[in-house]
Amino acid sequence: xxxxxxxxxxxxxxxxxxxxxxxxxxxxxxxxxxxxxxxxxxxxxxxxxxxxxxxxxxxxxxxxxxxxxxxxxxxxxxxxxxxxxxxxxxxxxxxxxxxxxxxxxxxxxxxxxxxxxxxxxxxxxxxxxxxxxxxxxxxxxxxxxxxxxxxxxxxxxxxxxxxxxxxxxxxxxxxxxxxxxxxxxxxxxxxxxxxxxxxxxxxxxxxxxxxxxxxxxxxxxxxxxxxxxxxxxxx
Length: 235
Prior knowledge:
Layout: H1 26-40, E1 46-58, E2 62-74, H2 75-81, H3 100-103, H4 129-133, E3 138-143, E4 148-153, E5 157-158, H5 165-168, H6 174-188, H7 217-228
Antiparallel strand pairs: 1-2, 1-4, 1-5, 2-3, 3-4
């Protein structure tokens, strides 16, 4: 967080960042921040979620984009894929818009060593209001629809509502459906230990679906991902 140099004196609450106690609406800001902090804690680490709203991308400067997509929240992998990523800064012209995304951006270092991440190591019951109001208002991740790395507004992130409709709509023979599902479920079962002669080589699964256009190859892939509640990355 940077405050540009200036001559003379300025009122502290005209700076890009200043102590909350000097804000004109302390209670209002705290009331806005608290629920966002509550939403931030459960998405620390690696999580598959849905975002409909704001995201922020750095193209030399912070750019706000609209997102309506399933996303993968993963701060550690985000930084691995974007090593030169610079965190957004506060714009003075927006500092009093009463929009939490422009008023505050605390750098998050919620790196995860496992998919359960640090949120499972934190006793949420012991956190105070002060802990929640300083949580980052965005989380870094990847948008599957937009094929884009970005920081997503925590307020616009929701749980995914899964549907059985794609799987029920598959117009393929039951035998073929059962084979596909058996293959995928067996590879998705962590209790099944299988590997190639070379360690790590045999952990994947490739299925070739071949037929004329319009018979449901793409829908099959989408239905399987929906049925197993797993992310789908289309190439």
